Amino acid sequence: MFVVFRKKSVIICLVLVCAVILSCVMLSYAAGAEVASVPKIGKTVVVDAGHGGIDGGVVGGSSGVKESEINLAIAKSLKHFLERNGYDVVMTRENSDGLYGLTSKNKKLRDMEARRDIIKEAKPDLVISVHQNYYPLSSVRGAQVFYSADSEISKQIADSMQGTLNTALGNERVAKTGDYYIVNCTDFPSVIVECGFLSNPEEEKLLVTAAYQEKVAYSVFSAVHSIFGTESEHEHS
């Protein structure tokens, strides 16, 4: 009886293992098929998660969370929305590491140069750099978009993005020019999205949640798609 019971147990275990493996294979196939079935619209976006590695950026006053962590979470969510709608996406980083070698003397400079090189190689239609803001006055809040003063295309995109963020997040801000390396290091249209202020207690509580990070990412995507999605439709009509 013991031998028979043991054999039955082994058989049951093998059946369960096979079922789990088969389920995983089917899910992977379905996910791959879903991505593959999305028609490409012929637009490439570089998504830059600001900071990383030894440079954590600003730090939340209450949570102690690093800006770099929130940047990466929002950047990954933005990548998801873009790819699901036919965009080719290039990420400057997809983990917590900085973009510099261990032997680099000036790690911050090397990190920024590496981001520039990724952008140049990708030849994108748009660069979006994700950041969080900080200000000594804790009452200051709201997402804001910055762009290069030398790029009219970047201004148009920034204005559209700012409007979408204002509506979705309850902001009352305007897009501004900014003398930042990431928007000036190449000639490709580029914007910096400061998603909120980690120095504002209420906004910090929102920014550390996955739901709000996804909301910000979707708002940015919506602005991008309102411009490039329409262009693509006209090109294929």
CATH architecture of the largest domain: 3-Layer(aba) Sandwich
CATH class of the largest domain: Alpha Beta
The helix/strand order is HEHEHEEHEHEHH
Largest sheet: 6 strands, mixed
- What is the global morphology? globular
Regions with little confidence, pLDDT below 50 for 5+ residues: 1-5, 13-33
According to CATH, the homologous superfamily of the largest domain is Zn-dependent exopeptidases
CATH topology of the largest domain: Aminopeptidase
Give the rounded overall mean pLDDT.
87
Decide which structural class fits the backbone: alpha/beta
DSSP helix fraction:
40-55%
Give the number of DSSP strands: 6
Please give a structural write-up:
With 237 residues, this protein is of the alpha/beta class. The protein folds into two domains: 1-37; 40-235, Aminopeptidase (3-Layer(aba) Sandwich), CATH 3.40.630.40. The protein has helices spanning 2-37, 67-84, 107-122, 152-169, 181-184, 201-207, 210-235; strands at 44-49, 88-91, 126-133, 144-147, 176-177, 190-197. It has a six-stranded mixed beta sheet, sandwiched between helices. The termini are far apart.
